[in-house]
Amino acid sequence: MIRERRSKGKLESYYHQFVHEGKMDPNVHPWVAESWQRSAANHIAYENMPSLTRLSKAELAERQQSHQTAIEYLQGLYQDVQEHFTRYNLSLLLLDHECYVLKSYAMPFFQKTPGEVAGARLTEEDIGTSSISIAYEHQVPFLLFGPEMWIEECQTGDAFSAPIILGGQTRYLLTLISAEREALPYSSVAALMLSMKYAMEKHLDMQAKLAACQAILDAVPLAVYHIEPGGEVTYANKLGEERLEAAGAPHKRPSLNEVVLNYRHTPLYRGFLGIPSYNKEVTWITPTKTYEDITTVVPLYGLDKEVDSVLAVSLPIEDLRNMVAHAVGYTARYSLASMVGEDEGFVSLKDKAARIARSGQAVLLQGEPGSGKQRLAHGIHQASPRAGGPLITLKCGDMPPEMLEDELFGVNISAEESRTGKLELANGGTLFLDEVEKLPLHTAARLAESLEHRRLTRIGEEVLRPIDVRIIAACDSDLKRLSEKGIFSESLYKLVSKSIIRMMPLRARKDDIPVLARHIVAEIAGQHRMTSKELAPEAAEFLMSYDWPGNVKQLQGVVEQAFFNTPGETIMPANINLPGNKSLAAATWKEDREVFIEAWKSAGGNISRLANMLNVSRVTLYRYLKKYGLEKE
């Protein structure tokens, strides 16, 4: 509040009348009167400056560091008007939102040295009425005449305080104090303070917005660059700086002409010709590494309507694959802990899987259909250092052999379109090859070569693309014997068989069936947000009486059906629809027609149910129906 000049003699009489007689003159400004009354009520000494609450040197230094932007900016403003401060013997203080003095400029406040006032707290509770306390309370600039200050020792001059308001809250206070009674040019002082207030608010608001923009740019998975003609990078966000550093950029503001070997063949060069590019797949060749990005380049025009710089935004294709993989659920759904059992052999198998998971080696899972190979693959990935990367699954028996190579390596469809394969999608993570024995020889050999050299080319392309993939392979048969017979690639077998885990059939650990069944019940209840159910002891015995040719997968289906068929809270034998109890321990459905027919009958001729029971795809089942001369009912 900018006030008209007042008679200091009258103001002194109002002050003494209140302090010594307790009477408040009606001519006292209402805000000043309220503050005097609070100061008196708080028993604040009015003759001399009391001992002030202050920060330690370390605390002050820390607080100054956190407010460095405001301190430095005000220092610049002060230097421009320093002569004015010296002429009128003025002091300038910068206080934070708690009214601690961050810095003193010009002449010392209260005739104290700057070292004494810096770090001191100047609230109404500390020094009584002041321009600081009134400006802070009412959030407006306020001119306070000397005789209106609570402490007599400080009444030699006038004071003007202005709050620096950001986001609707007082963040700082500017305070100008005259050390003498000489009349000040109040209009000039007010104009100066209001100008400094406005400038600081605009500057700090802009700095806050720029900091927010910088945080956003550093958080996004994009490399952002501002580039001037000649390729000089004037700005790069965090990822952009990391890319430049990895590419061997020689200094802080490098020229892409020096870093990008194919610079003249990129959209950047065309951008300076006024040609924008949007979401183009671009290869950046640097002395240390080749990058593949999805890049957008936007020309920026100057006042002369000529291109004076370009903005480039690049999304690394590797990061894009990881985002897509996570977005579509290419992550582990199961942990090793979800594989339950107390059998000594099974516990040993889990311990081995945990050790192998940490090693990073390729893994081969061998075992009968439905024995838990897929769940174990998920658990190994989740327990590995690659858990943050994608888990990509390719079921080799789900598609015709001639399509597997395109699906695995990707394919160049046309000059404008190229499709990513599962191997690239798994970059930085794990590729799970289910029914790996179904891979054609030439495809398996090509895969082994790509994994060995850690790079691939898509079908129909010559571009070498780096890969970093761990392989978990699963098969139902003896892969070593298949490779010895020349039916499976020997090179791929050597690669995936560095660690082998042989899955136990469920009939080999029958004592685990009740534990497994109860775990399945708990999982179903959790997935469907339903109350869990008990498995009666006689129901557990009933489940143990069966040989489970479809292993855990088949048990899963039977228990799930029992869960939903049980009206009460306890699953009884009557609620369990157990398949025919003929022992199939000595044979497997892929090799024995009778075993397949038995399983087919158990599933009631339902393809989906049989696929669930045997943990295979419908495509595979159709192939075996044809092989055994059976028709789908």
UniProtKB/TrEMBL annotation:
Domain of life assignment: Bacteria
Domain Sigma-54 factor interaction: 339-564
Gene3D superfamilies in alphabetical order: 1.10.8.60, 3.30.450.40, Homeodomain-like (1.10.10.60), P-loop containing nucleotide triphosphate hydrolases (3.40.50.300)
InterPro entries assigned: AAA+_ATPase, AAA_lid_NorR, GAF-like_dom_sf, Homeodomain-like_sf, HTH_Fis, P-loop_NTPase, Sigma_54_int, Sigma_54_int_dom_ATP-bd_2
Keyword Nucleotide-binding recorded: yes
Single Gene Ontology BP annotation: regulation of DNA-templated transcription
Pfam families named among the record's database cross-references: AAA_lid_14, HTH_8, Sigma54_activat
Keywords: ATP-binding, DNA-binding, Nucleotide-binding, Transcription, Transcription regulation
GO molecular function: ATP binding; sequence-specific DNA binding
Keyword hit for ATP-binding: yes
Family annotation (PANTHER family): C4-DICARBOXYLATE TRANSPORT TRANSCRIPTIONAL REGULATORY PROTEIN DCTD, TRANSCRIPTIONAL REGULATORY PROTEIN
Protein name listed in UniProt: Transcriptional regulator containing PAS, AAA-type ATPase, and DNA-binding Fis domains
